[in-house]
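Q: Hi! First time asking for a complex rather than a single chain. Here are the components, and I think there are two in total. Is that enough to go on?
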Amino acid sequence: MTLELVSKTQCFDGSQCQYTHRSEVLDCEMRFSIFLPSQAEKEQRFPVLYWLSGLTCTDENFSQKAGAQRMAAELGIVLVIPDTSPRGDSVPDNESYDLGKGAGYYVNATQTPWKSHYQMYDYLVKELPELVEDTFPVSDRRAISGHSMGGHGALTIALKNPGRYISVSAFSPICNPMACPWGEKALAAYLGPDKTLWEEYDATVLLSRSTERLPILISQGEADQFLEEQLKPNALKAAAEAAGYPLKLEFHAGYDHSYYFIATFIEQHLRFHADYLLHID
Amino acid sequence: MTLELVSKTQCFDGSQCQYTHRSEVLDCEMRFSIFLPSQAEKEQRFPVLYWLSGLTCTDENFSQKAGAQRMAAELGIVLVIPDTSPRGDSVPDNESYDLGKGAGYYVNATQTPWKSHYQMYDYLVKELPELVEDTFPVSDRRAISGHSMGGHGALTIALKNPGRYISVSAFSPICNPMACPWGEKALAAYLGPDKTLWEEYDATVLLSRSTERLPILISQGEADQFLEEQLKPNALKAAAEAAGYPLKLEFHAGYDHSYYFIATFIEQHLRFHADYLLHID
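A: Yes, that's all I need. Here is the structure of the assembled complex.
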């Protein structure tokens, strides 16, 4: 697999880069962004935080708006920021913003027309990390985070792969997609009508069944316009309480669903991950 | 003059807001963004940094990408981020990105069809500050900064108004617009062919004639794709040296013309302005 460098610029004390590559899993060309602290240009290998973005985003939203590079450079963490769906003229799409391109939901689709390309779960769990770990000076110490649909992706991917991620966090995640309009629409389209199959991609269900105890941090703005109808953090909280799972869920007055919220608390999230990623037993 | 609140959200320790208002000077409705540190909600009055953006930008680019709110909240500085040109269906435009809407160049146009609306200099020096100072808990202690075309705007506006601004800074400014393609095109269109009139909006010319000694900080990326052809910081440096003007001009290896550069050094610029804005004799 070959990577093509699209752009590279200095950002804080490191390099902000974009690459394209052919994805076999998604059967299309994909782009991702990566931030490499300048210390990562030496021989040591650094841990990686994967960031999964929300509906309509590409690899650029988090890269340009969160300001995460400042702390990532200071802490010595590589940031990998993938796209949110397969891309290209041959990839099926839908006219709505919450299905198709920009809305892959980090699942493996089983339904026509989506199944030919929409295998974002396998792309993120297998193909992309292999590529990153073969190419860049990174270790196999991984953390994962994301926003909204990407928060759902981070939580479900971490919960489904015990031992693969050291810590997980999310901003304003879709916590219970089986029980909200965004999730019902996407899961029905990508997975079909059998709701027992949806459970495999629902953080609230997965957490209630989990035996691993991952460090989880979730931040939620109280002025978030999607809080009540779509995000449902209290469903996840109830599942965690029932299971005795030590979930750290923090509400913040006045913050909405935007990147202004992420920019404000990304330092806290990076320090949270660093506590686990950089701790060597 | 009445302001209409478009949006308001918490960002770091303060409020990020957008307002619209009718501009008499520009004869159209204008939008601007303002960041108010939470401390500014008390009775004290806080200094203001005006930020002028570059070609194609609105009030949102700096607001979303620079991460300036973190330090502004900490230092107690209000940020005012205007648009880069008059807006609306009745405002003349040009098909190119570097003339017309999004490219007001912070001048008072004298030529048809521009002169009816393109009076950005008066808007920024008079109308907008009056509105801001009448409405928000701000003092008359002002600083000004900007990027590229906005760096040109910040430098020229500060140099043309002795005593009005306490400090000025710029990222990657167009330092000598009379002698670069961007500036030649815009100044000819807005001001006509008489180049002696262009001198009133050329930072290199204005600095060489200035008697005031303002604190000026300029940051320039060495990997900036526009450095040689358009920006010409060394022309400004030569003028400063000839005039004995204490210009602080810093070059940074590896940084390009993007907001990644601004995000990296905005803390330094805000601390530079704070040294003067918050210093009470």
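A: The longest helix of chain B spans residues 259-277. Let me know if you'd like any chain examined more closely.
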